[in-house]
Automatic annotation (TrEMBL):
GO BP annotations listed: polysaccharide biosynthetic process; UDP-glucuronate biosynthetic process
Gene3D superfamilies: Cytochrome c1, transmembrane anchor, C-terminal, NAD(P)-binding Rossmann-like Domain
EC primary class: oxidoreductase
Record-given protein name: UDP-glucose 6-dehydrogenase
Domain (UDP-glucose/GDP-mannose dehydrogenase C-terminal) ranges: 324-419
Lineage: Bacteria, Pseudomonadati, Planctomycetota, Phycisphaerae, Phycisphaerales
């Protein structure tokens, strides 16, 4: 434990704040969690997960009496040495992130700091736009506290690189720690808090606020470009006789300049984080008068992936079929459907005149044009075609069982069934592979599926 920081406040106990508060408390800090939502506060105090996150319940079982939750933000600041702000920063229509929640929290933090007779470290973890920490955030804290940043209190910007579904593992095993700091004491203190909790010994990059702000959205923009490159290869491999995207990406991933992570061609990236960060980087570039084409192109090509999947499906599924879509969340082990490609695919196939049923173990999107089923069996009942859109555990087996009972078209964008022997009568379409259907020995996909642009133009 760091000598000066024994207790921390976590402001915002949502998808990130709740698991991180639990990790800090399990790691030995006294943590006061703060949230506006009464049910979230009650859930934490009863050691129940307020959000869907694997492993959170177990982590809450390890916090003993070190974690309490309240809606009293000022009280939490008065009781603690450091605070983390993890409230939403929703995207605006121009691609930038709203600071409304962050500034509302900072107003209250600043007012509490005014009467505090000791130094306190405020760390913004929410993803904010370049310039925000040294701008509106610092100004708000200074105005409301009457103190000078870097003297009366410390300020850091330290975003997380954790993925939903693996928040706890990623938080405890980071590749690196990124810290934008108002002054050396603040950066040093935050680094010591992290080092007391994380299970590895990651490198710490300490820098100015603006560099940390740019670095955060750059990581996501770079990784999405990598995924989009894999998806571009998948689209090519589907049309080139004999080609297999996994053979290509596994080979090129061995080049250390490329690397194998996040190089799986699939259905396109979605979720509450990746899609918005390219839009944010493009906004930063445009606002600065720099070239914005790169992040804009990555975003546009990612959106074309649903066109690619829709074209592939429509090429093999007879008109007015019953289609089962398995998995609607943007990835397994999550209930999130923001920018979910499976949801978009379900809507597109329904628009094309098919009867579409969908099932997800956790997600419940407001469905447009398709039926949301309560069970996997109900979704699969009588289906002519199945799309394994987001392959949760157990789904692959259910699809094979279905195909054993009746001839089925199986569309498998992630190739989870690629090693399986398909039951007789199955039409199997893995994404990213060239497929010769039946005994025609023709390039069926290339011959039948219009390129995505034609499909989009056709409406
Ligand atoms: N979810 C993710 O995987 C990641 C999220 N982030 C960033 O973290 C931030 C938070 O994201 P999530 O945890 O997903 O959001 P969330 O919406 O799940 O949780 C935010 C929580 O903050 C609470 N809140 C809002 N204003 C408050 C206030 N004044 N005082 C106390 N509580 C308040 C809300 O009630 C809510 O429970 C965003 O900026 C996001 O971009 C960054 C990396 C990963
Ligand atoms: O900034 C954020 O908020 C977070 O965004 C992502 O986290 P997340 O969106 O939760 O989940 P990922 O597991 O990274 O997956 C994102 C999307 O990429 C897709 N993906 C991932 C990997 C891959 O090889 N191919 C691919 O299409 C997934 O299917 C999913 O749609 C980043 O991975 C985190 O590091 C970051 O902190």
């Amino acid at each position: 434990m760091h000598e000066s920081v024994q207790s921390v406040a976590m402001i915002g106990l949502g998808r990130l704040g709740a698991p991180i508060a639990a990790c800090l408390a399990a790691g030995g800090f006294r943590v006061v969690g703060v949230d506006l939502k009464r049910e979230t506060v009650e859930a934490i105090n009863r050691r129940r997960p307020p959000v869907f996150e694997p492993g959170l319940e177990a982590m809450l079982g390890r916090v003993d009496d070190r974690l309490t939750a309240t809606d009293d933000l000022a009280g939490a600041i008065r009781q603690t040495d450091a605070s983390f702000v993890l409230v939403p920063t929703p995207s605006e229509t121009d691609g930038s992130f709203s600071l409304d929640y962050v500034l509302a929290a900072c107003e209250e933090i600043g007012e509490a700091l005014r009467d505090l007779d000791r130094w306190h470290l405020v760390t913004i973890v929410s993803t904010v736009m370049p310039g925000d920490t040294s701008g509106a955030i610092q100004h708000t804290l200074e105005r409301t506290s009457g103190k000078t940043c870097g003297e009366g209190f410390g300020l850091c910007y330290s975003p997380e690189f954790v993925a939903l579904g693996t928040v706890i593992r990623d938080y405890l095993n980071p590749d690196m720690l990124l810290i934008g700091e108002s002054d050396p004491r603040s950066g040093r203190t935050l680094a010591s808090i992290y080092k007391a909790v994380v299970e590895t010994d990651p490198p710490v990059s300490r820098m100015s606020f603006v560099n940390a702000e740019i670095a955060k959205i750059s990581v996501n923009a770079y990784v999405t470009a990598k995924i989009t490159f894999a998806n571009t290869l998948a689209g090519i491999c589907e049309r080139v006789p004999g080609a297999d995207v996994d053979a290509v990406t596994q080979a090129i991933g061995l080049d250390s300049r490329i690397g194998r992570k996040y190089l799986k061609g699939g259905i396109g990236y979605g979720g509450p984080c990746f899609p918005r960060d390219n839009a944010a980087l493009a906004h930063v570039a445009r606002a600065a008068g720099a070239i914005a084409d790169f992040p804009e192109t990555v975003d546009a090509v990612n959106r074309q992936q649903v066109d690619r999947m829709t074209a592939q499906a429509l090429a093999v599924i007879p008109p007015q079929s019953k289609i089962a879509i398995l998995g609607l969340s943007y990835k397994p082990q999550s209930d999130v459907v923001d920018e979910s490609q499976p949801v978009m695919l379900a809507e597109r196939l329904a628009q094309a005149g098919h009867t579409v049923r969908a099932f997800d173990p956790a997600a419940t999107p407001a469905n447009k044009g398709y039926t949301l089923c309560d069970t996997q069996d109900a979704c699969l009942l009588d289906a002519h075609a199945v799309v394994l859109a987001t392959p949760w555990p157990g789904m692959a087996e259910a699809v094979i069982e279905q195909a054993n009972q009746k001839p089925t078209i199986i569309i498998d964008p992630w190739r989870v069934l690629i090693e399986q022997t398909m039951p007789a009568g199955t039409t199997y379409l893995p994404g990213g592979r060239h497929v010769v259907l039946g005994d025609k020995k023709t390039d069926r996909i290339a011959a039948v599926a219009p390129p995505p642009d034609d499909l989009a133009a056709a409406g």
